[in-house]
Each structure stands twice: as structure tokens, then as C-alpha cells.
Amino acid sequence: MVKRSATREAFDKPISKLDKKLKVFSRCGIDIDSMRLMVLQAAKAMDVLGNIEARAYVSAVKAMVPEKACRIIDQAIQMHCSTAISQLTPLAGMYTDLRYLRFADGLDEVHPRWLAKPPGFVAVT
Length: 125
Prior knowledge:
With 125 residues, the protein is mainly α. It has a single domain (18-114), classed as Butyryl-CoA Dehydrogenase, subunit A, domain 3. The chain has 5 helices and 2 strands; from the N terminus they run H-E-E-H-H-H-H. A two-stranded antiparallel sheet has the order 1-2. Strand 1 and strand 2 (13-14) form a beta hairpin. The longest helix is centred in the first third of the chain and has 31 residues, at 19-49. It starts with a helix and ends in a 10-residue tail after the last helix.
């Protein structure tokens, strides 16, 4: 996405220089790191607490990762325009696969609703 934005122009300058796109890049990086950390936290909770007690962490990952990943891929599709939905990039397939994951384990609303019920998150030390 970053490479493509450096070569594509709008308003006589690379779109990577537009303020809004810089914000998109930084938000995508933050989201990727937060997803990575959440997965690691869920894995640690499973190791320390056991699978049943770590359900809240696993549910949080199942709720957050597919949604944020779809949003990131959608931003990449925006950056690539019509090239993104051709066979020249893997973006269309990635979006389809991730969108399916949002249905695979229940509706998007299922996991956050489950997290709101006690006991919710248990501290992992």
C-alpha cells in the first residue's frame, strides 16, 4: 500500500504526500501492532490460565482481528483502485477470505456481547 501510494499521483503529487493518506498509513500500522499484541496476549492467557479461562481473550481476538484486517485491506484496495480487484494483486482474494472469517465463528456482535458478561477478562500474570 505504501509503495503504491508513492507511485500514484493525485493533484500533481504522489498520494503518499496527502495528509489523509499519511493518517491512513499510521492507523493501519497501529492496528496491525494492536492485533499482533492481542493475539500474543490470548496465547499467553491460554498458557497461563488454560483454554476455558482464556475464552475472553480468544473472543476479543475473534472479534477484533477480522474486522480490523478487513479495514486495512479495504484501505489497500482504495490505494490500488481498479488494479486491486484484478488478478494483478492478491487484495480481492484477501478481502473475500477475511470477510468470510467474520461469519465463520458467528456474527460480529456475538463476541463483544459475550465479553460484556462476567467474568470477562481475568488478569494474566
